[in-house]
Amino acid sequence: MGLKEGTRVPRLVKVAGLIGLVGVAATGCTADEVLRFGWPEGVTPQADSMRQLWTWSVIAALVVGVLVWGLIFWSVAFHRKKSEDLPRQFQYNVPLELVYTAVPFLLVVVLFYFTAVTQNYVLAKPANPDQRVNVVSFQWNWEFNYPEYRTPDGQPVRTVGSSEEIPLLVLPTGQSIEYTLSSTDVIHSFFVPEFHFKRDTFPHPDKNNQDNVFANTIDQEGSFVGRCAELCGTYHAMMNFEIRALSPDKFDRYMQLRTQINQRTGQPYTAAEALEEMNCGELCTPHAVTGVPFNTDRTGGVPS
To answer: Cα(58)–Cα(129) distance, rounded to whole angstroms?
Structure first.
């Protein structure tokens, strides 16, 4: 009987391991997807830093879980009731109590340390960012302006969403970008899923309970949909925008056009006109991602 029980446990372990292996393989996930544990792909170094914190936190949790599960199953398998005698007690085992007090404490300290390091990195603001952009939210649209670039009439280069044009925030890759957030009416929220970052925009900066400035660096070209993530009124669900991340040479050409007069219209180039003039493929298509501009002819807020 004892021999059969001894061989049964390793067999169960093998079966459990095989089931786990088949379960992982059946998901069709790549090794990178498995190691991300469901964390979405990001396009900034800050997003990658948060993913690494998530990955190692999950691994640590799994290690602790396996240890606890192992001890539970070990107790169930090898310490079942065999007689009426009281089994050996460990409630006054001081070394054991010190171990299971110290180990959780160390886990919390290590997790707190790496969380603080990651948070400080994500929230860090460079002293001299390569680009600055002001993000202004209003019901139910967005304004993006670049204070360091001026149109021929001396005004900052700005893009405001309209019924004909989805608001486009064009940014360079590989450069540090500082975002200053504000609102002209109610609380909104600037959220770009690929940034893995969200921050509310407040109408009164002096009453803001959070920092309205953050910075990041986009490490790849692409078109990314942004959203308002704070319920802000009737048409909150339609308050979307696009980020166009262009290589530095394309961004310089874009800004060169935005600071010139369009000879066809006699006005400074709009974001859509500048991108069309550049003719750089899908990234220069004004509505490549969101597809249909939303109606802004409603009673609501106004831009700055």
So the answer is: 34
First to last CA, the chain: 83
Cross-strand pairs, 245: 171, 222
- Give the amino acid at 61: A
Indicate the SS3 state at residue 101: helix
- Give the number of C-alpha atoms closer than 13 A to the C-alpha of residue 56, restricted to the C-beta side: 13
Per residue in 88-108, pLDDT (tens digit) is 776 777 887 888 889 889 999
Average per-residue pLDDT for the chain: 82
Nearest Cα neighbor of 24 from 14, 34, 32, 15 is 34
Over residues 43-64, mean pLDDT: 90
* Amino acid at residue number 59: I
Winning range, highest mean pLDDT, from 32-36, 91-95, 127-131: 127-131
Q: Which tokens belong to 199?
A: 């921050």
CA dist list (Å): 49 to 36, 110, 202: 12, 16, 27
Residues with Cβ < 8 Å from 135, sequence gap 6 or more? 142, 143, 144, 169, 179, 180, 181, 182, 190, 201
Count of other CB atoms within 10 angstroms of residue 141:
27
> Residue 169 phi/psi, 5° resolution?
-105, 105
Look up residue 118 and give its two tokens. 């990651």
The predicted model gives 267-271 an average pLDDT of 86
CA–CA separation, 13 vs 17, rounded Å? 6
Rg value, the chain, Cα = 28
Closest alpha carbon to 241 in 133, 137, 132, 130: 137
User: What are residue 83's phi and psi, to 5 degrees?
Assistant: -160, 180
Q: Which residue has the higher pLDDT, 81 or 268?
A: 268
The pair of three-digit structure tokens given for residue 5, joined into one six-digit string: 């029980």
